[in-house]
Design goal:
- It is a single chain.
- It is built from five helices and six strands.
- The two termini are 12 Å apart.
- It is of the alpha/beta class.
- The C terminus is likely disordered.
- Helix 2 runs parallel beside helix 3.
Amino acid sequence: MADEFWDLTGHSYCFVEFANLQAEPWKGDTHDYSSRPYLLRAWQSGEKYSKAMELACTAYCCVFSGVQALPFQKTRMKRGLLSFDMSERWLKRGILNVFSPSIVKMFLAYHFGGWSKKPLYKLCCSAFAAADQYKVGTHHECYYKWGYFTRVERVDVETSGTTYIDGPPTQKQGISFCT
């Protein structure tokens, strides 16, 4: 998606990385994105960290994810700037998750930072994420379905060997598929 955002914004998109994900391969993708022109690794130096904070204060829109982004999100919320918070469900293991240090920090920032009155929207990365947010009293009526997007190769439907149950379609139809 980052590559698409880079193209769609005319190269004015930036992805800020707050932790060295290559050092923690269990935290996500193991693909090396270091050569991407839009990547800013805030964890590498104080100068890059400051640049990331400047972007959080000046960008038209930001999408945040994870507790490492919390200082940047707090700064942005104080200014009342358009933001999205992306996460999976908070209560995956039930009420036990409420005591997770990361969730406690996010919960307190939302409720005691006045974020309910700010332009902050939730991007839910699972089927139950919105229900979990509702249970803990955050992001009321500000939920959007979000997901993981994989690269899908182009397929020529005319020569793909597809078998139709009711015979071939009479007209071509556009299909959008996201996983």
